[in-house]
Write a structure and sequence with these properties.
The protein is of the alpha+beta class. It is built from 6 helices and 12 strands. The protein has helices at about 20-25, 70-75, 75-90, 155-160, 165-190, 190-200, and strands at about 10-15, 35-40, 60-65, 100, 105-110, 110-120, 130-135, 205-210, 215-225, 230-235, 240, 245. The strands form 2 sheets. Strands 1-2-3-7-6-5-4 form a 7-stranded mixed sheet, sandwiched between helices. Strand 1, helix 1 and strand 2 form a beta-alpha-beta unit.
Amino acid sequence: MSVDAAPGHIALDEVDSTNAEGFRRAASLTGATWIIAGLQTAGRGRRARPWASPRGNFHGTLVLRPKGPAETVALRSFVAALALRDALVALTGLPGSVALKWPNDVLLNGGKLAGILLESTGLGTPAPVLCIGIGVNLIAAPDPAGLEPGATPPVSLLAETGHRITPEGILAALAPAYARWEATLQTQGFAPLRQAWLAHAARLGEGIRARTGEQTREGRFDGIDQAGNLILRMAHETVAIPAAEVFF
């Protein structure tokens, strides 16, 4: 599947998870395809955490068949984040309010507006499938009471800005934005995406905590490297972290 052509889309009233539906349908799709749902009954975020999916919010998945090694495929999280930021800015006219949080969140006024989840199967085989799940709190945000200390509080677009945007409206802006950034990745590599992502990165140059499993490290967020790893400058060393939970 290529994403340089305009992808198709499938709109469902209700589904367990748009990513799960993407895997179920992948073999029958003839090109890059967006799947959106009015309601998810079993939406999930990173580390299989439940993702609140009420009607009116955006729940969508882009299904692709990417070529290349797993580390290159994983860079689509940055493609998706940049595309979503572009879509939100185009729809709200608020470029200074939308920031990107490593590894895969989009922030609005410092709160978590959206999350991105990449899941894949068969990478490196003739039949790879990548599902890029995106959830955006358009009209409602989850209750922050259940968050662990230090977690970024969730916000909704409606409450923060007064903009009431439909899921279809988000998709209309998001799909072409994704195609543009995907074309950049394919033709120019990751360098321009890295530069653009860093230009909108939240807390760049500031102190953060990065937790991987049972280990938590504190230091200064010095950016991302050419593989998309987080660069954490600590008192006695600087490390590149491929995956972690980040706390401000």
